[in-house]
Design a protein that fits this description.
There is one protein chain. By secondary structure, this protein is an all-alpha fold. It has a single domain (4-122), classed as Globin-like. It is built from eight helices and no strands. It has helices at residues 4-8, 10-27, 32-37, 44-58, 64-69, 74-77, 85-101, 107-122. The longest helix is centred in the N-terminal third of the chain and has 18 residues, at 10-27. It is globular.
Amino acid sequence: MQSALDQIGGEDALQRLVTRFYDLMESDPALYALHRLHFRGHGLSLTREEQFNFLCGFLGGRRYYQERHGHMDLREIHAHVPIRKADAEMWLALMDRALADCGMSGDVVEKFRVGLRRAALMVVNEVPDWRTGETNA
């Protein structure tokens, strides 16, 4: 049985998706609120790599993220980042856009979207925004 990763075209297709996602994030001023969340981490260069590593395992491929970090706990990964529901929705809309731009569709992609929605909403938290101090999750 093929993994979801295999069904979307393998690691090469996933790399194109992640690249498109972050290219859009970096180039669209409307996504600044999402882009700035990455300033608190290690920057977008590392984030691109780690997103690929995580999603590869998330889609049933090799678990690169787990091999490197010993876990795939999304809450732990994002514990230092103030993520609001609006941020999660913006992230999901951007991923939808990247999926469409990469020509990815079908049942496997719809299941992927459902999993992504569950994951994105799971990381919404009450970490204070480092600029405003607000905690309105």
